[in-house]
Amino acid sequence: MLKYLLTLTLLLFLTSASGADPGPLVLFDEGHGQRFVAGGDGPLDLSYLAGIFRGQGSRVLSHAGPLTDADLSEVRALVISGPFVPLSADEIAAVSRFVEAGGTLALMLHIGPPLAELLHEFGVDFSNGVIREDADIIDDEPLNFQVSRLPGHPLFDELERFELYGGWALMSFDQRSQPIASTGPKAWVDLNGDKLPSSGDAIQSFGVVVAGRAGAGRFVVFGDDGMFQNRFLGDNNRKLAANLGRWLIAE
Prior knowledge:
25% of the residues lie in helices and 28% in strands. By secondary structure, the protein is of the alpha/beta class. The protein has a single domain, classed as Class I glutamine amidotransferase (GATase) domain (Rossmann fold, 3-Layer(aba) Sandwich).
């Protein structure tokens, strides 16, 4: 009798495991010179972010090769964070088709130029310098500051502010997207290199997160990748990461 029960228990376990839903697939691109990755456990890596996604039921994988239609065929959401090497024209076309067909895309800038052509594909551009703030500064460093101008969007549910650590201004140049988080009105981009807000600099409110739709899919662009790195996932940024994880896989 005991042998029968053990056999039945094993059979039920195997049947349950074989039929288990593996969860929606979130793919981290790591094929474009990324130095901070989902599989790393250093202070600037993204393993805590990946862990949050897994805790929400997502299956998280990393991809080190070129991005193709075949690679993206089973993917629910694609994350491209901090590339140092641009995507090829074929890869940009594949990512665009992925989003148009209903996929979700999250882009996070470390430096702007490697993502320029992909951003332009979705009607988004970035500044030619990083943003400095004059309010809500972190540790007396104008490059690091809190962002609290958050109009209604699911990414900011139950969130009053988040922290940004050296980010680029983002601009939408067509109607597919719009800024959903912005700096204060006296933020500035240091165009003359004197590290002071002065004549000739761009001084205004800048978008730091842009979100939009393309075809059946959605995309979001963050002007900073540091905000999701292990070292900087404090309470606010961790909440934002959790909101992002849910938004990436939402139907």
